[in-house]
Amino acid sequence: MSQTFESIFKDNIQRMHYQVDGLNADKSHLQVVIWPTFSGLSQFEKDIADYIASLGFSVTALDLYGVEHNPVDMDEKRAKMGALLAEAESLHALQYELTQSACDAIQGKMIIHVGFCLGGRLALEAGLHFSQSVGVASFHGLMSFFRAQSAEKANTKSKILVLNGHQDPLVTESDAQDAKRYWASLGMDFQFVDFGNAVHSFMLPSADNPDHGSQYHPLVAQRAYGYLANFLEEFV
């Protein structure tokens, strides 16, 4: 894309995040932030937010691209994702701004990042690089996240849950092992769950492209919801 990062993601971009407040007082110290797929904020992320809120947590599904700026065709989605992930500094600056805009009224709360596909990687980025993050749940997320410049700059207190399709063509065995070795070298608390017979986008009901390694798997999705619910309860 020939446009600058700011013109694509920041300049004159109006965003409308989807906020649902949990009603459980015992969980009022927590805020969940949802990072969307490369298609941008959709009904899928809103449904996930509603599910998490039903567990008693306050949650915000982020509008990554802005109102009426979600990419439509595959080429545009890939181009926007490429521009977003091109440089660590600009990516993290945008993520920090979006997190703060979603959480500006909840100073002092602990933030847990949840993400899907591209959003899975963005959740891992936020968990590793933002000091106010305490947890990450990545669903079929990419493992090519930017590593911290040094161990001292890594937010090692974040707990990490990765839910991965074992046959996901976008997460190679080498990618998975590299990520696990990295977290282990930092002494981080991580779980990496491989679901057999599952590929990319196993959580998305609209995913139906098995020839390209993307397919909804309702049983795996049901299991993954259970993992998420248990993970979130660790912070209560």
Please provide a written account of the structure.
There is one protein chain. By secondary structure, this protein is an alpha/beta fold. It is 36% helix and 19% strand. The protein has seven helices and nine strands; from the N terminus they run H-E-E-H-E-H-H-E-H-E-E-H-E-E-E-H. The strands form two sheets. The chain has a seven-stranded mixed beta sheet, with helices on both faces. Strands 8-9 form a two-stranded antiparallel sheet. Strand 8 and strand 9 form a beta hairpin.
Structural descriptors:
about 240 residues; alpha/beta; Rossmann fold; 7-stranded mixed beta sheet; two-stranded antiparallel ribbon; 9 strands; about 35% helix; globular
* Helix vs. strand class: alpha/beta
Order of helices and strands: HEEHEHHEHEEHEEEH
Question: How many DSSP-defined strands?
Answer: 9
Helix content: 25-40%
User: Major sheet: order of its strands?
Assistant: 1-3-2-4-5-6-7
Q: Summed up, what is this model?
A:
The chain has about 240 residues and is of the alpha/beta class. The protein has 7 helices and 9 strands, in the order H-E-E-H-E-H-H-E-H-E-E-H-E-E-E-H.
What is the fold's blueprint, element by element?
Elements: H1 5-9, E1 18-20, E2 30-35, H2 43-54, E3 58-61, H3 74-84, H4 88-103, E4 110-116, H5 118-129, E5 133-139, E6 159-165, H6 173-185, E7 190-195, E8 208-209, E9 214-215, H7 218-233
Parallel strand pairs: 2-3, 2-4, 4-5, 5-6, 6-7
Antiparallel strand pairs: 1-3, 8-9
